[in-house]
Automatic annotation (TrEMBL), chains A, B:
The lineage of its organism: Bacteria, Bacillati, Bacillota, Bacilli, Lactobacillales. It comes from Candidatus Limosilactobacillus merdigallinarum. Residues 6-134 form the Acyl-ACP thioesterase N-terminal hotdog domain. Belongs to the acyl-ACP thioesterase family. It comes from the Bacteria. This is Thioesterase family protein. Residues 154-251 form the Acyl-ACP thioesterase-like C-terminal domain. One of its GO terms (molecular function) is fatty acyl-[ACP] hydrolase activity. Keywords: Fatty acid biosynthesis, Fatty acid metabolism, Hydrolase, Lipid biosynthesis, Lipid metabolism, Transit peptide. It holds the Pfam family Acyl-ACP_TE. InterPro entries: Acyl-ACP_TE_C (IPR049427), Acyl-ACP_thioesterase_NHD (IPR002864), FATA/B (IPR045023), HotDog_dom_sf (IPR029069).
Length: 253, 253
């Protein structure tokens, strides 16, 4: 059987990676996972520069994540890992994981990526030379991350508006995907965020958010199922959905 | 002569440390400098935990910074340095610097810090045991960072409003100081930010910004003096000034 290439990135958390509770934020967790994937690509000869020379770049479409207890804390030495789970001509499914200082696996995330032609701003076939160093066979069926629940915002939903800040924009000229998490979480009451821990998330990206856009972050009524609470989220601009998410929560004992 | 203890922190920039131009953002530069100062305190036995046990924490009052050309780029290996320039019973002046991968000093920043009693939320004398490991003598006069220009916003100023996001809050329960830079820069036109390079900044912090506050970021008319442009900034909440800043800019040739 082929050996799947894994990449492990040791990292020491700093205060700016953490939220107000002093634990790694979901936003920075996703940022670090993407960094690990870039480093793996780079280690195999197809870093950002080489990929851009081929006229393209990676775009995230979906995340599905599962958290196992507390996320690591400020100054903790963690390991972020990644590998390609499967791919075909247009899509890559990557697995990510995060081990805390004690070696416990505290997060597992699966991400669906596509390849974008940077000139045409359209999906393009993944250049074969990028995948070759992984020495993995392509597959027809992909183990896609689970999508957020299908929901339609109505008058029971609440919303908040945010202006995309200059600092939200990354070198691709749009709001970095991980920044959406700030808008998603910010709609939840502060008391709720204090008393509950995220246990799972599904995030779907549909359209980019351009500089200075006025973003509406919508929150549906919380749904409970035993111990588990689910929050539904939609990010809109001018009534168009740019992203949506389902978050699972558990009350902190 | 006494030997001033310096601390040097090697760091590799990641994409999330950089702004849309792919260079280190001012916000992250300040975050990294504070991280270096925390690491120096920690290396001398008074890290965050030990300092909190003494009932207090460091608070930044002023920054004065000078930039020498381009800031380093994504994936560049940099060194962030710091040392205590002078201190007395209530204040510490710290020097920070940033060397790029080629060893060129691209930023020099001076910061004025005070010590806060975390229970009374008031300034307190700096505990002697924190300063002892630095083996530096206290001084009466302090080489304080230069303050921003004294300005009063009027009808010629423009403004933008921002809601402090959940993600802006740090473990001290208020908006992290470096995050103010996002509100300050965001008032400037995108075209201006693209065509100009920051060469110097003076930043003064007066009041903290609490979660969910509605922040007004005010921008005065640009003033030119030969090649040099100066922008004046005030951050207000409910008409009260929480911070102000003067930024010097040069047109990129």
């Amino acid at each position: 059987m082929e050996k799947i290439k894994e990449y492990r990135m040791p990292y020491q958390l700093a205060y700016f990676d953490c939220d107000y509770t002093g634990h790694l934020s979901i936003e920075m967790m996703l940022m670090l996972m993407i960094l690990a994937s870039e480093k793996q690509n780079e280690s195999l000869g197809f870093g950002l520069d080489e990929t851009q020379k081929l006229g393209g770049g990676w775009v995230i479409l979906d995340y599905e994540g599962h958290l196992n207890g507390e996320l690591p804390k400020d100054r903790e030495q963690i390991t972020v890992g990644t590998r390609i789970k499967a791919y075909n001509r247009f899509f890559v499914v990557r697995e990510f994981w995060l081990d805390n200082a004690a070696g416990k696996r505290v997060a597992e995330v699966s991400g669906l990526f596509t390849f974008m032609d940077l000139q045409k701003r359209k999906m393009a076939p993944i250049p074969a030379e990028i995948m070759a160093p992984y020495q993995q066979a392509a597959t027809i069926r992909l183990p896609r991350p689970q999508s957020p629940d299908k929901v339609t915002p109505d008058e029971k939903w609440s919303s908040k508006q945010y202006r995309a800040r200059y600092a939200d924009i990354d070198s691709n000229g749009h709001v970095n995907n991980a920044r959406y998490v700030e808008w998603l979480l910010d709609t939840l009451p502060a008391g709720f965020l204090k008393d509950h821990r995220l246990t799972a998330f599904r995030l779907n990206y549909r359209r980019e958010v351009r500089p200075r856009s006025l973003v509406t972050s919508l929150l549906g009524p919380l749904m409970s199922n035993g111990d588990q609470l689910t929050s539904q989220h939609v990010i809109q601009i001018d009534g168009k959905t740019h992203a949506c998410a389902s978050f699972e929560w558990q009350k902190i004992q």
